Amino acid sequence: MNRSRKEALKENIERLDQNEHAQIFAIIKKHTDNYTKTQNGAFVSSDTLSDDCIVEIETLVAFYLDQRKGWTER
């Protein structure tokens, strides 16, 4: 997975809310236990995530953003 694709995913994730972040974290936990959890949230290096994990996250993020787009167009 190339760096620019991961950076675009990071930017899209930053646009999501706390509940959506929790769903993304559930995907990460399903694929790895290599993360750090603090009071401020969970931190994970995208270099440690498998391509399958990243694709699953991309799919979920795209769904969330499409849902938002649908709401704003109404």
What's the number of structural domains?
A: 1
How many strand elements?
Answer: 2
Q: Based on helices, strands and strand pairing, what is the structural class?
A: mainly alpha
Q: If helices are DSSP runs of H or I spanning 4 or more residues, what is the number of helices? A: 3
Q: Evaluate the radius of gyration.
A: 13 Å
Mean pLDDT: 93
Brief synopsis:
With 74 residues, the protein is mainly α. It is built from 3 helices and 2 strands. The protein has a two-stranded antiparallel ribbon.
Give an account of the 3D structure.
The protein is mainly alpha-helical and 74 residues long. It contains 3 helices and 2 strands; from the N terminus they run H-H-E-E-H. The chain has one domain. It is 65% helix and 8% strand. The protein has a two-stranded antiparallel sheet. Helix 1 crosses helix 3 and helix 2 packs antiparallel against helix 3. It is globular, with a radius of gyration of 13 Å. The model has no long low-confidence stretch (mean pLDDT 93).
